[in-house]
Write a structure and sequence with these properties.
The complex is a heterodimer. Chain A is mainly alpha-helical. Helices cover 74% and strands 1% of the residues of chain A. Chain A has a two-stranded antiparallel ribbon. Chain A is globular, with a radius of gyration of 22 Å. By secondary structure, chain B is an alpha/beta fold. In chain B, strand 6, helix 8 and strand 7 form a beta-alpha-beta unit. Classes of the chains: A mainly alpha, B alpha/beta. At the A-B interface, helix 3, helix 13, helix 17 and helix 19 of A face helix 1, helix 2, helix 4, strand 2 and strand 7 of B.
Chain lengths: 496, 353
């Protein structure tokens, strides 16, 4: 127990609190700018934490993680461009709200969603880390395949008007994922002899291309509008009482989905937000309003991606296995500070673990305060003329792409995807399925091949193992639901 | 006109940002590297005794790591750089740059294209040999200069805590009895893979083992802890903390000496097998780097390896701190290459040869 009080003493020291605040702010800046991610924010800061006490350094890095994931909401809402892949779904409803002058409200909702998602993830972390992490180990490669199939179908059924178009785009995304090095053997394939894609297509440049560059092109087309955003109406409070009540199931559901997906090592936040958004849409009374400013969309997306944080920390703290790329960087940070992650972390360094638990909440509070405090000012700040704002975002995003691997290839890929994305939007093809195919494709292939290798080339476990059956059943239900919604929409259209 | 100007300015900014080759990472980790009057004066008497001028860096040194941030190589590179900086073994700052793409190709190419002035180095290990021999990369270690070796890490075979295998001999016996035994490892054509292949070759169980390839250490750990595989060949970083927690047990170390942390666990040398493949990591420089530059850096690394901080870090990571000079390092690489060449022939099918 004394370790707990030691931890309190360490965290609630003015210096530590200041570092955590700085970390959160730093993370939020990275999270805000498309092309720069929470993972990068952590990696860049690690050397700077050398001179600090190990635990203080880790608390700061944790703050960066939380800020990094949460910052994405700002650009998603106010610019319509995702700061990180986990904020893509926030753009769908956040941006239309900002366009109708409700930017401040959308940011407020985003802040609250971040808060609630983080808290729920945190509760699972502090109460059930050990048990949940051992449970997560039961998920083998075939289980991952089942989950990923569920995720892809979820996205295909939710995007756009035409399921066929979404499906085609998802398949295209899966194809893009096969370009580059074979995940197991490292041999090059599908590069068509082109050097640019010899490293494959990374998620972030593709995302920057399709969601930032293509978006900027579209904005430039409306050059009669000087400002990207209309003036934001000030809002009292965050939501009305009815809206709060309506949102409770969404908050709960999205938090749990986010935490659950975060716990599974390797999958990460990107899938979580799509599944949360999809589920929120399916359970909503008016699913057709998703994508034009339904606050439930923002709630699902932002709650989900913050719940992932708590989830991803579970295998990291309990087993020393990273839940996503940011926790992998955090693990590196732990080791640099001579703290050995692993199952014995709690036993050998209880003060560290307690400090992580406590500073997590501190960072979440700071994040919430920064967002709530800033929500009135961010729209004002971003009300710069499009002519100045958009090129700045463009340059920063491209620099972020270069910074991934110090390679111009990623910058060119972003540009190419920008042109591609612009063309797609002109022909009304949805872009989300491509991103999801790209992100999940690599994982799908890796796990499928690993599973086959372990089972002696048999696909049987995919349909006989219990967890697999659950997710495959969920996929089928998801498809049926989507068909139902589609029928309803057609009926409503026929009536009018 | 206004539009043209803003477009032009954007292009200029974008071009300059990408052309300078710097990055936010460089900027934020930068520290001034002053060479004061006093230092110069204090060094003159010692300098006079040396036959060659001791090289002093005047700008930041970039260390390329061909793997992602948070990985083992990254960790050791950063630790080494931090120790050298803190103790001023070299009066400059370091920045570690991760170039994980292209299966180490990008990192190695970046090193080879850099100026041979000592300001760009690479922290890498004998994957350089294995990937080249199997054809995954074209560059060979003959294309770069060796500065020095900084550490060695043995590989070991670990089994689940409740595994029926108590020793390596149990595995061999099981195979000889006609069973196929699955064994996991991470990193196709990596030194860890070859350490395993070497063991299989030496134990004459080449055909009886079903090799299961994992992409990274975490994946392999997860699979073993989750009960999907029983046996795994691993490096120390991906196993020690789990041995300590009792989740897995070490069966044999593929090395010549008993490991300081686990002196009761036998080694392949105990079993009568010859040279094992261990992970040897060190610093490399572009070909043609001047001797005094290499000597100065090697000297700094040597002092860093002697610090308590490095020794403790290596111990915790299960590594053996083995500083060796550039020539010795290269000689070890040459010896490893012979073994690896043989193994590629033995396992020709696997490597598509």
């Amino acid at each position: 127990m004394s370790a707990f009080f030691d931890a309190l003493g360490i965290v609630f020291h003015l210096g530590t609190l200041l570092y955590i605040l700085l970390g959160v702010a730093w993370g939020m800046i990275f999270g805000m700018i498309p092309g720069l991610s929470a993972t990068l924010a952590i990696v860049v800061l690690i050397p700077i934490t050398y001179g600090m006490e190990p635990i203080v350094g880790i608390c700061m890095l944790l703050g960066v993680y939380i800020g990094g994931v949460s910052g994405g909401v700002i650009s998603a809402v106010l610019l319509g461009m995702p700061g990180t892949p986990s904020s893509i779904t926030t753009c769908y409803d956040g941006y239309p709200l900002a366009k109708s002058g409700l930017g401040e409200k959308a940011l407020g909702i985003g802040a609250v969603s971040n808060l609630i998602g983080s808290i729920v993830g945190w509760i699972f972390l502090i109460l059930f880390a050990t048990q949940l992490s051992r449970l997560a180990l039961k998920f083998g490669p075939f289980e991952y395949v089942a989950i990923i199939i569920f995720g892809i179908i979820a996205v295909v059924t939710l995007s756009g008007d035409s399921v066929l178009k979404s499906f085609l785009m998802a398949v295209l995304g899966l194809f893009f994922a096969t370009i580059g090095s074979d995940p197991t053997y490292g041999t090059l394939r599908n590069t068509f002899g082109l050097d640019i894609i010899s490293n494959g297509i990374n998620t972030i440049p593709a995302m920057v291309g399709m969601f930032v560059i293509a978006h900027i092109c579209k904005e430039v087309q409306h050059h009669s509008e000087k400002y990207a955003l209309p003036k934001s109406k000030p809002v009292k409070g965050i939501m009305t009482k009815e809206e709060w009540k309506e949102s409770i199931p969404n908050f709960l559901r999205s938090s749990i989905i986010g935490t659950a997906i975060g716990i599974l090592p390797g999958i990460g936040g990107n899938l979580a937000t799509f599944v949360c958004y999809d589920q929120a849409k399916k359970y909503d009374k008016h699913p057709e309003t998703f994508g034009s400013g339904n606050i439930q969309g923002i709630i699902a997306s932002e709650t989900g991606n913050n719940a992932v944080i708590g989830g991803a920390l579970i295998p990291m703290i309990a087993l020393g296995i990273p839940g996503d790329t940011s926790t992998a960087a955090l693990l590196g940070g732990l080791q640099i500070h001579d703290l050995t992650p692993g199952p014995l972390l709690f036993k050998l360094n209880p003060d560290l673990v307690y400090s992580v638990f406590i500073s997590f909440m501190v960072a979440v509070v700071f994040m919430f305060v920064l967002l709530m405090g800033g929500k009135r000012f961010f729209p004002k700040i971003l009300r710069i003329k499009k002519a100045f704002l958009l090129p700045t975002v463009l340059v920063l995003s491209l620099v972020g792409c270069y910074n991934l691997n110090y390679s111009m290839k990623d910058v060119w890929i972003a540009v190419l995807f920008g042109i591609f994305g612009y063309a797609l939007s002109k022909w009304n093809f949805p872009m989300t399925p491509i991103v999801i195919g790209l992100i999940l494709g690599k994982m799908l292939e890796k796990n499928l091949r690993l599973g086959l290798s372990q089972s002696g080339n048999s696909l049987l476990p995919l349909v006989t193992q219990p967890i697999c059956i659950v997710f495959l059943a969920a996929t089928v239900i998801s498809i049926l639901f989507a068909v139902k919604i589609k029928k309803k929409t057609i009926e409503m259209e026929e009536k009018s | 006109m206004k539009k043209l100007v803003s477009l032009f300015l954007t292009l200029v900014v974008a071009a300059s940002l990408t052309a300078c080759g710097g990055s936010k990472a460089d900027e934020s980790a930068k520290e001034p590297a002053p060479v004061t009057e006093e230092t110069k004066e204090a060094e003159t008497p010692i300098e006079a005794e040396e036959t060659s001028v001791s090289w002093e860096p005047t700008q930041e040194i970039r260390i390329i790591v061909c793997y992602k941030a948070g990985g083992q190589s990254d960790l050791f590179a950063r630790k080494l750089a931090a120790i050298i900086e803190e103790n001023k073994f070299l009066d400059t700052s370091f920045v570690v740059v991760n170039m994980a793409e292209g299966n180490t190709n990008d990192g190695i190419s970046a090193l080879m294209e850099a100026d041979a002035d000592g300001y760009t180095l690479m922290f890498h290990h004998n994957a350089f040999i294995t990937l080249n021999t199997t054809g995954a990369i074209n560059a060979s270690y003959e294309d770069v200069d060796f500065i020095c070796e900084a550490l060695e890490q043995p590989f070991l075979i670990v089994a689940n805590a409740d595994s029926k295998y108590e020793s390596a001999q149990d595995i061999i016996d099981d195979v000889k009895a006609g069973n196929t035994v699955p064994m996991g490892y991470s990193g196709f054509a990596s030194p860890g893979h070859f350490a395993l292949l070497n063991f299989l070759y030496q134990a004459d169980i080449v055909d009886g083992i079903q090799q299961i390839t994992y992409t990274g250490g975490s994946e392999a750990i997860t699979a073993q802890l989750g009960g999907q595989i029983d046996l795994r060949s691993s490096n120390t970083g991906d196993s020690f903390s789990y041995i300590a927690s009792g989740d897995i047990k070490p069966l044999v170390f593929m090395s010549g000496e008993r490991h300081a942390s686990y002196p009761d666990v036998e080694t392949t040398a105990d079993m009568g097998y010859g040279q094992a493949i261990t992970l040897r990591s060190g610093l490399f420089a572009p070909k043609g780097t001047p001797e005094e530059v290499k000597a100065a850096i090697a000297e700094a690394v040597k002092k860093a390896c002697e610090t308590q901080e490095w020794q403790d870090f290596c111990y915790e990571q299960g590594a053996a701190n083995t500083y060796a000079s550039g020539e010795e390092f290269k000689a070890k690489f040459d010896s490893d290459k012979e073994t690896i060449d043989t193994l590629v022939e033995v396992f020709a099918e696997q490597f598509g040869k």
